[in-house]
Specification:
Layout: H1 5-33, H2 36-62, H3 69-84, H4 87-93, H5 99-102, H6 108-127, H7 135-155, H8 157-160, H9 175-193, H10 196-206, H11 208-213, H12 218-244, H13 254-267, H14 272-299, H15 309-324, H16 337-350
Length: 355
């Protein structure tokens, strides 16, 4: 019995509704508590969620280990920041900026979209030849592309201020803005996964020969997923830039790449639900470990400061997860009402009966 497009649409909307409800609960609790520290933590979590879900759009549907995602985030961050900054601020922060960019000034949302669109265009141009590759060649070339993007950001002094700090960005990203865009990205990823292109993409992932035999253009569907993924990455980069307000190219290189990949792999790269759950779990663990590391160093518990505790612990968690559950917490099936009912039923059966 085959499923109709309406059933796929209903399933994607159900998943999106459940995930949006979870994000709404987090937003409501954070807003009611009103703690500045908690608010900053949740904003960062929403930004991470946008990035991880964006990576899932491509990596989860193609099964390609994709490294340049954070590089496209950096493009979105720099472009949106330049578009939104006041000309006077640019004359202070970016003394060598090109005249046509120095006088450019856009409101926050248009600047955000321009940054995301620029990231998508760059990804579409540079990534098209890579869509013909598979297995080890595409992994190596994608890592090389990340390095190329990092080198360009580090040495393009006129636009990025080189390796020095890019500063003077207005702080437009607040809790409401981050939550709103996170919700939009989740809806887009769920709809894409169950769309015709998403189904063709997963078919070519599971069996490229059979998919090609029924008319699936693997290069085309991969390229579309890459462009959408890069657009979401650029969107997350713009939100990040207008949240942290100053950054360097190091913010878009190996450390953030590892964290984003860990979130997706631990949660489950094949599903949007896994991407969301992995982001929530790893963000709490990562920030908690960082707080412990900083507290220990400030209190001088040891004769010398400890370094690398956070990244080492996260690496061990990732290794353990890959050994015990290679597909992540949510492997193949998205969240649904039926899954929640089965989970609730299992808990009731396991609960001790009173005598």
């Amino acid at each position: 019995m085959t499923s109709s497009p309406l059933q796929y649409l209903r399933a994607s909307l159900t998943t999106a509704t459940l995930l949006l409800a979870l994000l709404a609960v987090i937003y409501t609790v954070t807003a009611l508590i009103g703690s500045p520290v908690l608010t900053q933590f949740v904003i960062r979590m929403y930004i991470y969620l946008i990035l991880v879900v964006g990576l899932q759009v491509f990596m989860g549907n193609t099964n390609i280990l994709w490294f340049p995602h954070i590089g496209f985030m950096g493009i979105g961050a720099y472009v949106s920041s330049i578009c939104s900054m006041e000309p006077f601020q640019k004359s202070i922060s970016l003394t060598s900026l090109y005249p046509m960019l120095a006088d450019l000034h856009l409101p926050f949302v248009p600047a955000l979209l321009v940054g995301a669109l620029t990231a998508a265009i760059v990804a579409g141009i540079l990534g098209l030849p890579l869509m013909r590759l598979s297995d080890f060649p595409v992994v190596i070339t994608s890592f090389a592309l990340l390095i190329i993007l990092h080198v360009v950001m580090t040495n393009w002094h006129a636009v990025t201020n080189g390796p020095q700090t890019f500063f003077g960005v207005d702080q437009f990203t607040d809790l409401k803005t981050a939550a709103f865009f996170a919700g939009l990205v989740v809806i887009a990823a769920c709809l894409f996964r169950e769309s015709k292109i998403g189904l063709q993409l997963r078919a070519s992932r599971d069996d490229s020969i059979s998919a090609g035999a029924i008319g699936v253009n693997m290069i085309r569907v991969r390229w579309i997923a890459l462009v959408l993924s890069a657009f979401i990455a650029g969107l997350g980069g713009g939100l990040f830039a207008h949240f942290i307000t100053s950054f360097t190219p190091k913010a878009f290189f190996l450390t953030e790449t590892f964290v984003i990949l860990a979130m997706l792999v631990i949660g489950g790269p094949a599903t949007v639900s896994g991407a969301v759950m992995g982001t929530l779990i790893v963000t709490v663990i990562y920030q908690s470990l960082r707080w412990v590391e900083n507290t220990v160093n400030i209190a001088q518990v040891f004769p010398t400061n400890i370094a690398g505790l956070t990244d080492t612990s996260l690496s061990l968690i990732l290794i353990a997860m890959l050994i015990m559950r290679p597909g992540g917490f949510i492997e193949r099936r998205e969240l649904s009402w039926g899954m929640l009912r089965r989970f609730s039923g299992n808990r009731k059966r396991l609960a001790p009966t009173s005598r």
